[in-house]
Protein 1
Amino acid sequence: MEWQEAKDKFIQNWGALGTVWGINRTMAQVHALLMISPKALSADEIMEELQISRGNANINIRSLIDWGLVYKELKPGDRKEYFIGEKDMWVVVRQIIVHRKKRELDPMLRVLDEISNSKIPDASDEAIALNKTIRDIKLFSSKADSILDVLVKSDSNWFVGTFLKMIK
Amino acid sequence: MEWQEAKDKFIQNWGALGTVWGINRTMAQVHALLMISPKALSADEIMEELQISRGNANINIRSLIDWGLVYKELKPGDRKEYFIGEKDMWVVVRQIIVHRKKRELDPMLRVLDEISNSKIPDASDEAIALNKTIRDIKLFSSKADSILDVLVKSDSNWFVGTFLKMIK
DNA sequence: TGCAACTTTCAAAATTATTTGAAAGTTCAA
DNA sequence: TTGAACTTTCAAATAATTTTGAAAGTTGCA
């Protein structure tokens, strides 16, 4: 396989993976490109490489910075901005977890709290089932939450090492 | 809050959560409805409750059965099929993990294997960086994979109990 | 200040994903 | 067998998301 072919394949597939993860294709592709690029790239280089418009590049680069997966790099004597991708897989995954938790899990928990604070009376089988489901989800989520917190705060070696030892 | 309002809110929000999880809104809503329904519902009841078409209901019920989140229930002397939702949160989450892993992680790993088996020579900085990234992702994934396997095979109490003790 | 080099914005266009509903397919009791 | 009761399929319609590109905004140097 040619280097260029391998690179394209990697970028394409990372893009597809992004799609099912609720991250849009271009954002995932920009991320893939920067992850495998040893040097910082300018917006123009990214546009050229991925064949996307300036607006599209801009918006997705910005999201990636927001997610903590890409950093700006300024070169002295150059007004262009350059972008460098986070290379440490553990940090990448951790950032994705933090960001998605905030965006997805937290709003659901807020709704559950709102419902359960309003104390729907156990007046029918249906109401009992709803109340129970809500209790179960909250219980489960709070546990998942603690686990994610530890995960996020721990460093890669500690986590994987301890975990793998534990399950042996 | 009225029972009906709480129910709608729950279903709506579970649907929104589904969207960001790469599960379509209707599928997540059907799942929510069945999760909080103490009795099995027919396709017609689901259509009526969620205001969706027969085709849409059918396709999403089938996906849910496929994902192991909903079961068929046949009532003697009735030709209609009824559907009952998995109620155990741990099983729900476990099934989602298994299914998504198969659908998302595995294809990516196949591509990485394909690329790394073709042995791109370390002929340039770029090629070196790509090779390293691929190695890192594979390493990370194989660890994540073991962890997910344990998670999936373990039962809820064991996992959460042991984990929480460990991190104290 | 003025201007060139760059970045950001956003409405319209394009693309992608979902939903509908009617027709085809299946099943089973009589 | 037949036909009523039900389920499945799928092409077209609709809805949601993403992308474009041109115009507006910003920045810093001469």
Protein 2
Amino acid sequence: MVTIREVAAHAGVGAGTVSRVLNDSGHVSADTRTRVLAAISTLDYRPNPLARGLSRGRCQTVGVIVPFFTQASAVERLRGVVAALDGSRYDLVLFDVESPEHRDEHVATLNRQRADGLLVMSMPLPAADLGRVAGTGMSVVLVDSRQDGFTSIVSDDVAGGDLATRHLLDLGHRRIGFMGDAPDNPFGFTSSSDREDGYRRALADAGVPVDESLVRHGAHRRDVGADLAGQLLSSPEPPTALVCCSDVQAAGAIEAARRMGRTVPGDVSVVGFDDIEMAEHLGLTTVRQPLYRSGELGMTLLLEALGAEPPEPTVHELDLELVRRATTAPPHTKRGET
Amino acid sequence: MVTIREVAAHAGVGAGTVSRVLNDSGHVSADTRTRVLAAISTLDYRPNPLARGLSRGRCQTVGVIVPFFTQASAVERLRGVVAALDGSRYDLVLFDVESPEHRDEHVATLNRQRADGLLVMSMPLPAADLGRVAGTGMSVVLVDSRQDGFTSIVSDDVAGGDLATRHLLDLGHRRIGFMGDAPDNPFGFTSSSDREDGYRRALADAGVPVDESLVRHGAHRRDVGADLAGQLLSSPEPPTALVCCSDVQAAGAIEAARRMGRTVPGDVSVVGFDDIEMAEHLGLTTVRQPLYRSGELGMTLLLEALGAEPPEPTVHELDLELVRRATTAPPHTKRGET
DNA sequence: TTGAAAGCGTTACCAC
DNA sequence: GTGGTAACGCTTTCAA
């Protein structure tokens, strides 16, 4: 490994001068600069990021902590993150979280020297933890959760649930089922319960009483969606439409419905949430979340926060949008159109 | 930031002793050990990874360099990588590559201090680059490419192309189209051309001459697959079956076929490659690649290489397997069965 | 404009 | 067993 001292020796200057050239800190004569640059290229010298980080107190790395990063929605967010990071001088460290213990483990070892900034994605973190991390000097941006004093990017999930439900109400549905994450899930995710609030609000606004037997909870998995839909559709008085809190659950629901001999949207309409790629293939009507944008904006804001003059914490609200496709139609219709 | 010296002072010992406790390097009396541990927990001390890395010469980080990491197949590989990494003491740095310049940029800045080990995924790297990286002392494992002297994990793509084609031949097809990545793609990916070799071999073995007009090249994208299939199927003497080098291309091909009023597999059979999640939804017959396993094994081998006694470089061949689903059937059949 | 030298927080070696 | 003290490779201040 060639060090800065060897470069200095080779160029006949001091190590400090090489450093100055390296960092464009000015006050280096053109001639010296040229000699140093030549030595660097001759020796194929590359600064040691560790030493540099230790000396400067930052490591040119940003961390992203994200639960279940291989889920389509997380991947789409990460795509935005990486795009925003492209061209910056920062490396990306990925902390995947598959369980609450996992999360705590990462959060505990996280400090300023591991990453200069942290993007907390789709994961409510206890205020105390957040405070501790920020206390180490790390810049933090929250995507999909919020906390006083932190820059965050959120969507209005209540409005999203309302949007999906209202769409079905507008089509004439009155028996509308709902499925989302369990309210007491171990991570404390609240998006599903917020969407459920929106569902309830839309029904209330329309004067439709909520039938609690039509509200189900389970993980965002295809098989779980199929299972819950199976339960709902095999009841004596099945719903004519379903609001699902993820496209994945919706895909399972559609699968189950078809397996039971029901047509979609003829016998039952289905609305998803997220608008991941699969939604388009399925022709799924869904509430579109700006996933890519949230990741991109989150990382952009984090990089800004890492800059010379960090802006004040801000809250950015990204709009949800209903994408009408082929899985919703008025009730009691064969192959209806939207 | 609390340093090892403060801990030492607090416990009334020297910094060296704290370090010994921290690293279980032995030769510390039980009593001292207890006092140090107490000080650590009182002060909520966490070692600085940068300083540690600088001193020890390694940074407890592994890198993964992967092109287009949001592609379903890459994500599935990464899922295996992360699983293998779980429980280890290594952080994961992700280098996404979207263009050859991108790749070179990453490879150029890569050195021993940035990561202790590197997993090169689905990307043939010039031997010189590989040599340079390894020369910095970094352990390297190749997934989906091979190079003398490097541990690698590969599949026999020629056999894979053969497998897909033979399946169609066995069903009775004789006019079989092929689509894969361009042989002169900027990254130098060879999997598609290997599969094409397999395709040609299978046809030759069956005594079926290759009709060059049935062989097309394009990127692994849905729209490209649709486009290529459109060209093939609108020819005067269209193929009755298609071998696609990715499930994504196959999905596009199916879409195009249906849009042209052809049934799958009635009018045209389609075989994909990869067996990503989508393949199951589509009922796509495909050549299954052990994606998850390749990532998991790759990272496992890398961690072993990082250990005390690194094993010799080895080549691991992972088997491909035909998964028969609903998109292949004998020619000239409506809704045929496999 | 430049060189020398003092850190940055650890680890590891060497005495005691 | 334990403390002192060089590294590790870089940045940055201080003089010159």
